[in-house]
Design a protein that fits this description.
- By secondary structure, the chain is of the alpha/beta class.
- The protein has eleven helices and 20 strands.
- The protein folds into five domains: 1-81, Histidine-containing Protein, Chain: A; 87-151, Histidine-containing Protein, Chain: A (2-Layer Sandwich); 159-228, Histidine-containing Protein, Chain: A; 240-308, 2-Layer Sandwich (GMP Synthetase, Chain A, domain 3); 316-385, Histidine-containing Protein, Chain: A, CATH 3.30.1340.
- The strands form seven sheets. Strands 1, 2, 3 and 4 form a four-stranded mixed beta sheet that branches.
- α5 (126-137) packs across α6 and α8 (243-256) packs across α9 (283-294).
- InterPro entries: BON_dom, Lipoprotein_DolP, Transpt-assoc_nodulatn_dom_bac.
- It comes from Hymenobacter edaphi.
- Pfam families: BON.
Length: 403
């Protein structure tokens, strides 16, 4: 227990040090191009703004920031801005990338429809499943990934494959720095040697080896000591955080999050479960409050009981005018001929837009408008092959295929 007490007694890193550590995570761990991501830290709360060009980068930016020791919470305002490509081309690129990165998996099927990739079939371990999903999420132009893969027990997995799967998972795990760990595989048995910073990290390494398909795991020569981790490096996962500290982290994140406005809801944390109560003015505020709570340190589950109820509830005609005005003032979608309708506070969108970014942008305008109680987004994305290329801004230079 001494190493844990030593860790808890260390002073918290300064905000500038935490911001540098987040950027260092983006450099050391794969999956994030941070050239268009801005990182700001206030009282240990990380705020991410800007754009990414693929699903994996969007997810990893938040995951890696949360994993930095000293970070109390993450306010994630990142958006995805990427090319709109035909489904046939997306499927070709995803299939080629899967073959190049993961090798043949004859029991796995890939289908792409409306920029949504679906993976189905059977794999022999949880690690392989995560690997396949990560690869597909790297493809620029894919907006959603559906996981319909089933895991079965590995049958006679080779040492080479087991070593490959294990190295892959250790490389991508946000909470692990495996550079001080030696991994040996022989006849399905995994032997771990070296040093890690906590019992939690040691347990995670052992669990990763089992998940990769090991028949036995020997971690007897894996030492534990706080000296194994420099300051502001990935923290050990699942360290116990007092409920009061978690609640304060959520409240501090809400104060930093402009999407919530000035009326902050109430939060109660019991055994790592956060319960949100009260009223917020917009649908976006309700979503952001839950997201911030989930990203707070020590939280593993959130009960969102928030109601969307602005101080003044406009009638449908006034609300429709507000939506038209919001679109007219947005540089990205102001010229799009979409149809708005409002029924008892529910905003309904109809029409056709050039791409998925514009569809998501109009949805954001609706959920951020005070008085909108729910949104139905029935917008269609224009057929990729039937529209002329969209003029590219300076920040919209076509990105590479893989992050």
């Amino acid at each position: 227990m001494n190493h844990l007490l030593d860790t808890l007694s260390l002073p918290p890193p300064a905000d500038a040090e935490l911001a540098a550590a987040v950027h260092r995570q983006y450099t050391l761990k794969p999956g994030v191009h941070d050239t268009r991501i801005q990182v700001a830290v206030v009282r240990g709360i990380v705020r991410l703004t800007g754009f990414t060009d693929n699903l994996l980068s969007l997810e990893r930016a938040e995951e890696l920031a949360r994993a930095v020791g000293g970070v109390r919470g993450v306010v994630n305002e990142l958006q995805m801005r990427t090319a709109d490509l035909p489904d046939e081309l997306l499927q070709q690129r995803a299939a080629a990338l899967l073959a190049a990165e993961c090798g043949p998996h004859p029991a796995v099927q890939l289908a792409v429809q409306h920029a949504t990739a679906t993976l189905s079939g059977v794999v022999d371990s949880w690690v392989v499943k995560q690997w396949l999903l990560r690869v597909v999420k790297q493809v620029v132009g894919i907006w959603h990934v559906q996981d319909r893969l089933t895991c079965t027990a590995a049958q006679g997995i080779s040492d080479a494959d087991l070593s490959l799967y294990l190295d892959e998972q250790l490389t991508w795990d946000a909470y692990l720095r495996a550079d001080g760990v030696d991994v040996q595989v022989q006849r399905g048995r995994v032997r771990l040697r070296g040093a890690v910073d906590s019992d939690c990290t040691r347990s995670r390494l052992v669990a990763t080896a089992w998940a990769a398909g090991a028949t036995a795991v020997d971690a007897g020569q894996l030492a534990v000591g706080v000296w194994a981790r420099p300051a502001a490096q990935p923290r050990a996962p699942r360290l116990r955080v007092p409920d009061g500290d978690s609640a304060q982290a959520i409240h501090d994140a809400w104060q930093l999050d402009e999407r919530l406005g000035t009326d902050l809801p109430a939060v109660e944390v019991v055994n790592g479960v956060a319960t949100l109560n009260g009223a917020v003015s917009t649908v976006r505020a309700r979503q952001a409050a839950e997201q911030d709570a989930r990203n707070a340190t020590g939280i593993w589950h959130v009960n969102n009981h928030l109601r969307v109820w602005p101080r003044r509830l406009p009638d449908d005609a006034e609300l429709l005018h507000s939506l038209h005005r919001a679109q007219a003032h947005d540089a990205y979608v102001q010229a799009l001929p979409v149809n708005w309708a409002v029924e008892h506070g529910r905003a309904i969108l109809h029409g056709t837009v050039p791409g998925h970014f514009e569809k998501a942008r109009l949805q954001e305008l609706a959920v951020g408008t005070a008085g909108v109680l729910s949104v139905v987004n029935a917008l269609l994305v224009q057929a990729h092959t039937s529209r002329p290329p969209r003029p590219a801004a300076a920040a919209d230079v076509p990105p590479p295929l893989v992050a």
